[in-house]
UniProtKB/TrEMBL annotation:
It is found in: Cell membrane. Residues 73-314 form the G-protein coupled receptors family 1 profile domain. CDD domains: 7tm_classA_rhodopsin-like. It comes from Patiria miniata. Signal peptide: none annotated. This is G-protein coupled receptors family 1 profile domain-containing protein.
Amino acid sequence: MLSHKVSESMFWLRDDRLAALVSSHFRLNHLDEVCFRICPVDEVVCRQSTMGSTLITVINYSGAVILVLAVLENLLVMVVLAATSHLRIKYFAFVFSLALADLAFSVMAIVYALNRARFLSALLQSSFFVSVLMILAVAVNRYLALTITPPSRYDALVTRCRLVVVCLLLWCFSLALHLPVILVASDEVRLILSAWSRSMLVLAVWIVTAVLYRFVFRKIKSYVPPLASSPGLSIPDDSEQAATRVRQTRRLLVTFSIILVTSFICWIPFNVGQIMEYFIKTGQSTISDDTFNNYNWVCGFIYCLSPAINPLIYWWRLDGFRQGFKELFCRCLLQNQEQLVETVDGNENQQNTESTHWIKNDNK
């Protein structure tokens, strides 16, 4: 009878080692009720584990699709910006650099899913931080465009080469911030740097960027083109150029404000997860490992949405980008249509010539 109860209890246990432990404890103390109390709990844990593994599987496949789309979208953005003549201007310099950062992030995320090396994790977070810095750089650039007068002075000061240098410096700064962490031998120090130092720095950059965007929008609202109030001294070209720059600045800042909000929404759950990891590993939290693992996977999926959303925002907000896309990728279709029309016209002309020739012969 006793062994029968034990065998029934073992039927519900999924872990063989746990079953052996309970069986041994049962024989020594004859606490058969303990075994029956443990079995339902183990069944619930097993079901929760199954649900967690199913969730992780769904996130894995969905994340892979999102990342592949992000790679293709950002490659497309870079090709359009580089191959279209009217888009190779300073106005779109930081858009190109942001697309490059999103492309690097997507590629690193795919590689990191295959090999979870600390070096790849540092590159992944570095790429995302570059995108944050690019959003900040856009606000600084547009602020300079509004404050430096006349516009020709801004064009002389902010050249294409200097913008490229600024982009390279921002990349170097981000890499210098994230890569040295992998050289730290202590897991505790590395955990503190990851959970607090870098997270607080990125959060500070977000706050500064939001404040600066607000400041630039207020400046646009109260902006008066230089010398526009003095008819005798006004320079029509500079006034018209300044008005055009204000319109471009307003539209570009609205676009990057949308990118700012979406990127922050995608980043904040991941940042909370890093802080949670610190409290869990230091024993200051009662959150179970399974719960945190599921939360971490969901946050990672949301974290990867940003580089896939940004190209869609470019398409929606930037008229020049849509025009460049149509000129670049519809050109082949237009050329094929023109060749087809020329071929049809040539055949019709040839048929008309032959018909005229036969009519003349009949008349003779």
